[in-house]
UniProtKB/TrEMBL annotation:
Record organism: Halorientalis pallida
GO biological process: siroheme biosynthetic process
PANTHER family for this protein: SIROHEME BIOSYNTHESIS PROTEIN MET8 (PTHR35330)
Domain Siroheme synthase central as annotated: residue spans: 120-146
Name of protein: precorrin-2 dehydrogenase
Pathway per the UniProt entry: Porphyrin-containing compound metabolism; siroheme biosynthesis; sirohydrochlorin from precorrin-2: step 1/1
EC number: 1.3.1.76
UniProt catalytic activity: precorrin-2 + NAD(+) = sirohydrochlorin + NADH + 2 H(+)
Amino acid sequence: MIPLLHDFTGATVLVFGGGSVGARKARRFAREADVLVVSPTFADVEFGGAERIRAAPDADAVGEWIDDTDPALVVAATDDGDLNAAIEDAAREAGALINRTDEHGERDPESVVVPATVRDGPVTVAISTGGTSPALSRYLRQRIEDDIDGAGEMARLTGELRAEMQADEVDPGRRRDAIRAVVRSGRVWKHLDSGRTKPRQVAEDVIADVTGDLQ
């Protein structure tokens, strides 16, 4: 499986199953997508603002739900393996991506595994074990959270500096070396981590050292 980042803005994610697993999937996508959760009952947990529809479609009816909602992704999170299989078949027939929560290990083509993610601003790190060990994914996510603290601010800072150097028509090779030097500079990271107000000034000093130009 190849990891990709997918923009779900304006798309629909259709979740079958209102238990804790379905709720977790709903929360995962509710920030970007329009999430619909279909289930005869719902666990007393947070669904992230997803729309909950009380219904109990059988294997023959799930295709109608998929046709009516035109989802980009279908999540089969019921406790009925046969129903999940029917949901998967209907999703594939409709050309939608499919995530089955009751399958682990090797997946069929066009299957989706939802990774554990760590976010800091525009920086996203995804961890996946291919669905074989969600517990390990969560453990690694917790370890990585501290490691990328400040990465979002570094991404914004270097993005601004890169754009300015492009506008000034700085040689691409020198520009690349300068931005790499900023990213690897302990001084810049220290100012980002400490909440000081001058990380940009320090970054410009690093760039000046690399390019030999006054910034």
